[in-house]
Batch of 2 targets.
Target 1
Amino acid sequence: MENTRYDIAIIGSGPAGLSAAINAKVRNKNIIVFGIQELSNKIIKAPKINNYLGFYDITGIELRDRFKEHIENLGISITFERINEVYAMGDYFALDVNGKMYESKTIILATGIEYTKPLKGEEKFLGKGVGYCATCDAPLYKGKTVTIIGYNKEAEDDANYVSELAKTTYYVPMYKKELALNENIKILNDRVVEIQGTDKVDKVVFENNEIATDGVFVLKDSVSPTQLVPGLEMENNHIKVNLDMKTNIKGCFAAGDCTGKPYQYIKSAGQGQVAALNAVTYLDSMVKLS
């Protein structure tokens, strides 16, 4: 059975991604949206919002709930999977989720801001012991030693799952919150200096210690755009786009905080609409040429 080739794949479920989704959906495009269960971690942290047109004196959680109600009304669902890499294949894109591939004629990047720089050795050993999806790759480490470097609370659920398969599981919290981990998980409150190895990962070096490990999962909200889409042109640490939200890669659009300041919800939603409309125009032009 052949893979479904979507018209538009949207990576990100914040205001930009969801705005792109609803605008593509009402124009009858076959879409898929990759995101997180909270839809937008940034929005829910806002105690009060007064600069989003039509919504004033509203909390971030309330605005998130209105977003959720809107997409559900249009029958839009979120795919809770992390894209590891996007490959430009000419007339379509292949989106890799740890070996599982999705196909789409166009993509819209709405990934927000990458707040965390890669750890030393992280990119070098990606695919060689370093991974971003613990639940996907955990079976590969059955009976082995695994280190989880978690940047958010969601990483704890993944760590608990891994600990049921691995012989030894280390957890390195990169945040300060009360942990909810299985008793067999060893917690390391130390600063990561480097992920090391030869052909593959064999240890993690900390400021005050080092441990031998067979695999390392780095679990954070997003990866850098250039790591996600090889060849993507950047400008001042943001994705470079024109007024149509087009990137330097044909069929690839971007919207929201990942394209630069100001980091505002209403700006992101507007750019999401522009990206979707231009993706639709691009798709229609492809049909005319075929």
Target 2
Amino acid sequence: MASSEVQTVNTSADKAKLAVAVVLLLGAFVAFYLLSGRGALAQWGALIACLVAAVVVFGVSESGKRLVAFGRDSWREAKKVVWPARKEAIQMTAYVFAFVFVMALFLWLTDKTLEWLFYDLILGWRK
């Protein structure tokens, strides 16, 4: 049976790195709005610098390393997928559209039949 452990940040250094990353992220937006009188270059420079710093700090934390490893594993798995040829993709798309059309027609006919049955025959509301 597979273990379903929840992994959390264990060390205080990792917790501090994550806290610094969050503070830098919030600081990026605060700096952007506080520097509105200094011009667009100062605003965007502060925003980008703080965001890059937050990403770097998060990247060196254990959570960041696990995220990068997950991304690499996902990319490796995506390369293993055998994608359908163009002809197969077009055929499958056509099958899906045809099925949706047939189901829509069936549901519309069922709705109209029940409407006719209940309102016209049973209740006699329509004249």
